[in-house]
Amino acid sequence: MSKCHIEPATIFANVSQVVTCAGPGRARRGAEMRDAGVRTGVGVAVLDNRVADVAPLTDLRSQFSDAREIDCRGGVLTPGLVDSHTHGIFGRPRFEEQEMRAAGLDYMEIARRGGGIHSSVRDLRALDEETLIALARPRLMRLAAFGTTTIEVKSGYGLTLDDELKTLRVIARLTRELPVRIVPTFLGAHEIPLEHRESAASRRAYVDALVHEMIPAVAARGLARFADVFCETGVYTVDESREILTAARNAGLGIKMHADELSSAGGAELAAQLNATSADHLAAVSDHGIAALASADTVATVLPGTMLFLGKTAHAPARRLIEAAVPLALATDFNPGTSPTPNFPLILALGVSQLRLSVAEAVVAATVNGAAALSLADRVGQITRGYSADLALFDIGDIRELPYWYGDNRCVATFVGGKTCHQSDLAVT
Ligand code: NIG
Ligand code: FE
After folding, report:
1. pLDDT tens digits, one per residue of 230-277
2. Which among 170, 292, 370, 371 could bridge 84 via Cys, Cβ 3.0 to 4.6 Å?
3. Res. 3: pLDDT tops 60
4. Planar angle of CA 365, 177, 226, nearest 5 degrees
């Protein structure tokens, strides 16, 4: 190992468990998800922003004699959680819709009446970049406060070229400013804008704008890594989704999809056919859709917080997806309409109690497989030599406590590339 380092190493000492998730730098499937690589009696050394070693403390101390030490006080160290699905840039929270649903109006009915996504679109169009940044900054740092170190952030409440570019510029500025790792996704196909719903020709004009103007403009400016489409009955059809996502791929963007969230419309099959990086939601996926995903590299990202918050009893068939060897990821879907929680460990709790995942499966789904859903599995999501030192420290003595204290926040600190990202009042000394 080279000795000419700019900064000395850092050793994370006094850890009860290091949950390494060590293994291949790609999505894990089937039985591979059962091993979260839990190690005891070891610490973690970080050098030049990367994990340098996971080994007994005495070894680390002799290897890195000039290291500073962080006393983890018997906590559990995990890879920083990777939240691969959020809609983190919005204006007003939509709390009024929760009572409307309780009174019997369902999510799509609220949208048909001009609420839902349309309501956030009206709102965001009226806000300038500075206001959106001021709103998003503390919200994204709330996600970080629960142990998340990588956040995918979608646009999708603008639905005009200018308002989508405005949103993506906000994401780009936050990427530079915040200590958390951010991955930007263009979701101009989040809804058919109300002004394009009046006729088939007008609807077509918006799809044309997406394909011929918006996607090329976003790609040319380097403002997004992925493009996404809400493929759902009443929103984008499978054919429209195919056209939009093909244009995105041709422009050099990766492909993600909102697929089979509320109805089985063929979204999973399309995601598999296009070999999308991820197909997300899948609460209504068919057996045929599961089989199609099993034959692709696509990560199935399930979002149990959304189903919980919408008051639905159906959940994505996570067990059947795992049994079919489809790689499974968990994410928050943080957004103002269907999942306003920043609490990723709560989603792990739902993963275990509602989706019947083992703790190891839930942890792998929230780290390695979340990273794979963002094409980052070769550098984040594991505590392994050479990986970015993106770490989360929790005030628990056993990883099984992470989904157990549901709704609580046990995150003490997070680190991105070895640098402090979030630190709670329970200071790490
Ligand atoms: O993932 N389904 C579409 N998009 C979001 C909801 C967005 C909203 O209601 O504002 C979702 O659930
Ligand atoms: Fe979503």
Report:
1. 999 999 999 999 999 999 999 999 999 999 999 998 999 999 999 999
2. 370
3. no
4. 45
Which atom of ligand 1 has the smallest separation from the CA of 111?
A: 9
Ligand 1: which of 87, 89, 236 to mutate, judged by most atoms within 8 Å of the beta carbon?
Answer: 87
Ligand 2 centre to CA of 258 (Å) is 6
Confirm if 276 and 298 have CB atoms less than 8 A apart: yes
Closest atom of ligand 1 to CA, residue 306: 12
3-state secondary structure of 51: strand
Confidence at residue 1, expressed as pLDDT on a 0 to 100 scale? 45
**Res. 429: pLDDT tops 60:** no
Identify the architecture of domain 10-79+380-423 in CATH.
Roll (2.30)
Q: Count of alpha carbons within 13 Å of 97, Cβ hemisphere only?
A: 26
Ligand 1 centroid vs 382 CA: distance in angstroms?
29
Pairing status of strand 278-281 against strand 299-302: parallel
Q: Among residues of the chain, what percentage have pLDDT more than 90?
A: 95
Q: Is it the case that residue 5 has pLDDT exceeding 60? A: no
- Which ligand 1 atom is the nearest neighbour of the CA of 339? 12
What does the alpha-carbon distance between residue 11 and residue 68 come to, in Å, rounded to a whole number?
A: 6
Q: Give the residue extent of every domain in the chain.
A: 10-79+380-423, 82-372
Q: What is the mean pLDDT of residues 126-140?
A: 98
pLDDT at 265: 85
Ligand 1 pocket, CB under 6 A: 87, 116-117, 120, 230, 258, 261, 306, 333, 335-338
pLDDT at site 428: 54
Please give the Cα distance from 139 to 148 (Å, whole number).
Answer: 12
CATH of 82-372 among 3.90.1150.10, 3.40.50.800, 1.10.340.30, 3.20.20.140: 3.20.20.140
Closest ligand by atom to 189 CA: 1
